[in-house]
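FOLDING PROBLEM:
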Amino acid sequence: MKLYNKHRKVELIIDQELLEKIGNTGIVHFPNEFGGFLIGKYSDDYRTLFITDYILPKSYKGSRYLFERSSKGMKSFFSKLFKKKKEYYVGEWHTHPNGSTGFSETDLNAMINIEASPSVNIKNPVLLILGISEKQLNQATFYIYDNKKLIPYE
């Protein structure tokens, strides 16, 4: 699946199978929100982001309208991943059970904090929000973070 962000003139590529796998992981936690980290790499010109995998947090809190994950222990994991596969953290994903894929103020603030974090070396992280029901993935929207805004890919 290939998506484009007109604002930044960048594209995002993710295998449909991987997107469905992420969705199914979220469905297991229905009716609570759930999420994790997105893994990938950029093309040499940084115009194309390839999402290659996802990682689940070691600890988290999930409720009907909230997902909070810990990043504890992830720094060394990401360091090893980069050395081994030249892939790295590129953003976040989480579900909205029986909800839309629109982002909340909480989602935006989380991305602002991620971008500002000295331990995160990425200026335009992506956010994937999955609208799920008890049995299926209904919708998925990717956003790129840019200058305190979340702008959707189409």
The chain has one domain: 2-152. The mean pLDDT is 94.
